[in-house]
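pasting for the record
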Amino acid sequence: MRRTLRVLGSLVALLLAVAALAGAAAWWWLERALPLAAERVELSIEPGTSPRAVAEAWVAAGVQTDARLLYEWFRWSGQARRIRAGSYEVEAGITPRALLDKMVRGDETLEQVRFIEGWTLRQVRAALGQAPHLRPLTRTMSDAELMAALGSPGIPAEGRFFPDTYSYSRGVSDLTVLRRAHAAMQRRLEAAWAERAPDLPLRSPEEALILASIVEKETGREDERGRIAGVFVNRLRIGMPLQTDPTVIYGLGAAFDGNLRRRDLETDGPFNTYMRRGLPPTPIALPGLASLRAAVRPEPTRALYFVARGDGSSAFSETLADHNRAVNRYQRAGP
C-alpha cells in the first residue's frame, strides 16, 4: 500500500513537473518575438474568417512559426472569436500575445485618401486610382452607374462627395470610400439647408449645392465666400445672368487649355452662365463646409459685381460703372 502511494506520489510530482515545464515553455513562447520573413508582414482578414484560417494566413504571409501553435494560442486565450476583420501590419519584435491583442483591439493599419475643396469628380477618381491598397471597383463604372451603386440613381455625380481626408482599411474597394464621402455630403447639405436664410431664391438643397460649388471655385478666401454668395443671390433674385467664369470652364471640360477666350463666353451651352440665366444644371466641383454655409446664408450686400484684385481678394461693386472702373484698375492696369 505504502509503495503504491509512493508510486502515485511520484507520478503526481512528475505530472506537475511536466505541467510546470509546459507552462513555462508556453509562457516563453508567448513572450518571444516571432520570426518574420520580412521587415514588415501585412495581412487583410476578411469578415467571417475562422481563427484557424487566421493563424494559417499569418504563417502564409510571413510569420515564421507553426500555424497550429498560433491557433491553439488563439483558442486557449478565450479570445479567438473576438478577432476583428481588418488590415494589419506587424514588425520585427511582435510576440504571439501582442499579435492577438492587436487583432482583438482592431488595431489596423489604415491608409488615407484626401479629396480637396474645389475638385471635380474626375480629380476624385484620379486620387482614388492612385490611393494605395484600394480595390478599383468603380474604375470601369460610368458616373450614372456609380450613383446607382451608391443608392442615388438618376442624380448627377458631380459635387456629391464631401471634401475631406478618409481613412480606410487595406484591401477595401474605392466604392467604400466614395460611399462615406457621399453620405458625408448628404448630411452636411441637409444640415445647411435646414439653416437656410428666409426668402432665399433657391428651391431645393440641390440648387444650394450647385451655388455652393460655384462659390467654392470663385474664391479661396473663407472671409469672402458669404459676400460672393450674396452677389450671386442678388443676381438670381433679379433674373440677371450669374456670369461666372468657373461654370464656363467646367463646361469646356478637357477642351479648356488654361486660357478662357471671348469666343468661349459667347458659345452657348448648359454651363455658360453668360448666355443662360439661373444656375447651371449640376454642381461644378466639391464644395466645402464654408461654401455650403455661404450658399444658404449669404452675406447681405447690395453688390452685383466683383472682380479679382490679383492678391487673392476681390473688389465688390454695386453698379456696372463702378465695376468697370475696378476691372480697369485691377485687371487692365488702367487709370
